[in-house]
Amino acid sequence: MDIRRDFYLEKLIKRKSNGLIKVITGIRRCGKSYLLNNIFYHHLLDSGVEADHIIRFAFDSADDLYLIGESLIQIEKEKRGVDPEKFMAYIRSKTTGEGIYYLLLDEIQMLDCFEAVLNGYLRKENIDVFVTGSNAKLLSKDIATEFAGRGDEIHMYPLSFAEFMSVYNGDKYTGLSEYMLYGGIPLVVLRDGAGDKATALQNLFNEIYIRDITKRNRIKNIGELEDLLNILSSAIGS
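Structure (tokenized):
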């Protein structure tokens, strides 16, 4: 089931060819990749852009990494980023024609020296760059620092209530109750049943959000952090 995100699509459309790196940020699973690689991609096609002038690349995709001679498993084992030289060679081979090429790059923080690579593309008149980044690496202050004024941030949130209701089967009163209980993470909203929704939320919280916080801030005592979060959540709930 498709969820329309017209508010964010319009932001991307207005920023086309503005000479900056368009960076979509937001918490994990709020829909950044879907916005870029599906909604915006199909908008470009519908507006007359040729498919071979839209280059989609996900740095967490084993299939995409294979195209540039990289292995996701090897990268994980060696705890390194994607080789920028291999990636740039791939892009050069794809941008030899006339007209504007649109680079739609997902999980850009997995590319080594990504700041220098993207800043280099800004000097090319035939390339327009759109990227998504993980919250563990790319926050607003990081974009201001890393791209030295060349980054244009589009901060994305989970589904608004209006977006939620566009896919909810029921009246607005029961919809509001469910929205307030489970929130607007698309992955959770599209699940059926209270048990599945609760399990999905718990997995996101433990395996993704906690991990990002501890990694970014180098927190060693995770138990104390979890206790603190439980206290805060309980107080807010009360």
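The domain at 6-155 is CATH 3.40.50.300 (Rossmann fold). The chain has two domains: 6-155, 161-237.
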